[in-house]
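Let's practice the habit of predicting before peeking. Look at the sequence and jot down your guess about where helices and strands might fall. Then scroll down.
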Amino acid sequence: MIKKIAISQPMLFPWFGEFEKIAMADIFVHGDAVQYKKGYFINRTTIKSREDKKWLTVPIRKRSSKDKIEHVYIDNRQEWKREHLICLENIYRKAPFKNEMIQLVSEVYAYEWEKISDLAISSIQTVCKYYKLDRQRKFMRGSELNLTQSKSLRIIEVAKKLNSNHYICGSGDQKVGDRYLDHELLETQGIKTYYIKYEMARYTQLYGAFTPYVSILDLIANLGEKIEYLFQSKIYYWKDLI
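Done guessing? Here is the structure:
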């Protein structure tokens, strides 16, 4: 029996492609047990505006450079929630489903989150519930699995703990030989690797030319729940991409 897993670091309201990845998996693992990367999308996201793109950033407390994502705390002394909501209200005031998007964000922000991993995971899970992607698939955190390995061995460790035999990676546009994964090693353990080729399906946006690389909030504000036709991306076996 095929059981597909996908793993990604938690991100704050990530782009639509992340939800395509979730839709392809039977089990989705939030990778919160790896080192926090400054400047990544864990504590920030981009939205489209009249001035191209605007960042929504959650401030982080002072931390060690070796801290794992699960141990990074939010600086709640700053009024970042209010600033985000005002920004979204202003930028998407003419979007047809603006109220639904604002309600969804407000639902996530209603809780006094202390850790950035909890906030980011909540943002993803809330969107999954909105799009009914939470049905017929399981979600887990890497920190729940007591992982001890790294790189390819870590993937094997996760797959074996979850009885999975298919591993879904991100963009297949990058050369397979440039990847960090040891595909042959995974194969010896009965795990096949697949890469996603994102189709970047278009939808109506505000403010000029279309761009797919913005927060899922942009899609919600402009289209609401009716997005089934956008799920066009496919997965390819790694050997077929050589």
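How did you do? The chain has seven helices and eight strands.
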